Amino acid sequence: MKTYLVSIVFLAFVSLLNINCVSSSSHKSPAIGYADSINTEKGTAKKSIITAADQVPEYLGYLKGKRIGILINQTSIIGNRPMVDSLVALGVNVVRIFGPEHGFRGTASNGDKVGDSKDPNTGIPAISLYGKQKKPTKEQLADIDLMIFDIQDVGARFYTYINTLGHMMEACAENNLEMLVLDRPNPNGFLIDGPILDDHLRSGIGMYRIPISHGLTIAEFAQMINGEGWLPNKMKCKIKIIKIANYDHDMPYVLPVAPSPNLNTQQSVMLYPHICFFEGTILSQGRGTYMPFTVLGAPLLKGKYDFSFKPQSIKGMSETPLHQETECYGLDLRKFDTSVFHKTKQLNLKWIMDLYKAYPDKARFFDMSQSKQMGSFDKLAGSENLKKQIIAGASEADIRKSWEPGLSDFKAMRKKYLLYP
């Protein structure tokens, strides 16, 4: 009877969302939108993927009577309404919001330090975990009974939200606080590839000994952090997981909301694991345009490639992009068929190898001394070998062979933590 009543309340709430929602449309793009209600594969109809957050009856009763903290950003939605607004409307006692890189409303540029604030919609205090602190203090957790984690990940080691997850798990473990993980699909969940991170290259763009593309959902990754003893002193965080319905790792998934300002299309999300390590080179990945992570280029490639673009300062995306106000020549990947990645199950190495060969000033290709980009190529790749292999002209087969046995060992370890086929 109790479950039935919760379901009735939820259905009524969903109706209200459809009539009078507070949307996060400023983070959406024509290429980012809700997946069709029926997914088809090889002509066979499949049930719609339902995120954990959208299964309100599964967790609403668990929240009632508790003081709730939430670690969220603009991807944390119920229906198409921001989670914090939705939970407050459902009578949940949300006492504090925590936000990752780009802020909990997702409006800050990459790398920007985000300060603490108060949510203008609800008046709830919002604490930034991407600035002066990476995890909550004991005082900030003292009046919280349960922490919710609900952030869309894209499945790449250098995407910082898995780091944010680990820091919050550490804080919860230290303070004997349970974390409720509301799972979301990994759009690159079919891809497990790349060199395993070397310990001495650990950084803010690579904390864990995993390949570039790990093929896990955020809840599966939380289980791996616990299971592999990756928290300090091998602490364990008590976690409760609400699973995604009707999901497997090989299913295509169109993100309903752009996960960050520079992943503003589905195409950029699918290309991201393959081209983010270009941020450790002299080439632009389109930051400073409205097509980031779908183009690659540099001024010195003029005459070698016909396609060009000009990075400019764009508030909320890239204010000081590489090669600002300078025409860049290179590759246009906006229409590249990303479905090939489902077939090969491999990172694309051809682009980095071809562009290095084409670049006339090879001594500066990996020179980041003049750049304000994410980090060194070695830290992004997770290994010093890849750069050396590209410079030496190693074959793709030899490069991939060098990732073993680490990659195979990771794939075997990963199976222990899977929640979905």
Provide structural commentary:
It holds the Pfam family NamZ_C. This is DUF1343 domain-containing protein. InterPro entries: NamZ, NamZ_C, NamZ_N. GO terms for molecular function: peptidoglycan beta-N-acetylmuramidase activity. The protein contains 13 helices and 14 strands. By secondary structure, it is an alpha/beta fold. It has two domains: 194 residues, 3-Layer(aba) Sandwich (Rossmann fold), CATH 3.40.50.12170; 141 residues, Alpha-Beta Complex (Aspartate Aminotransferase, domain 1), CATH 3.90.1150. Helix 5 packs across helix 6. It is globular. It starts with a helix and ends in a 7-residue tail after the last helix. The N terminus is likely disordered.
CATH topology of the largest domain: Rossmann fold
Query: How many helical elements?
Result: 13
> In angstroms, what is the radius of gyration?
21 Å
- The counted number of beta strands is 14
Q: What's the assembly state of these chains? A: single chain
CATH superfamily of the largest domain: Uncharacterised protein PF07075, DUF1343
Query: Residue ranges: pLDDT <50 for 5 or more in a row?
Result: 1-31, 33-44
Protein name: DUF1343 domain-containing protein
InterPro entries: NamZ, NamZ_C, NamZ_N
Organism: Dyadobacter psychrotolerans
Domain Peptidoglycan beta-N-acetylmuramidase NamZ C-terminal: 270-420
Summary of the model, kept short:
The chain has 421 residues and is α/β, with parallel strands linked by helices. It is built from 13 helices and 14 strands.
Q: What brief labels describe this structure?
A:
three-stranded antiparallel β-sheet, 13 helices, Rossmann fold, seven-stranded mixed β-sheet, alpha/beta, Aspartate Aminotransferase, domain 1, single chain, 421 residues
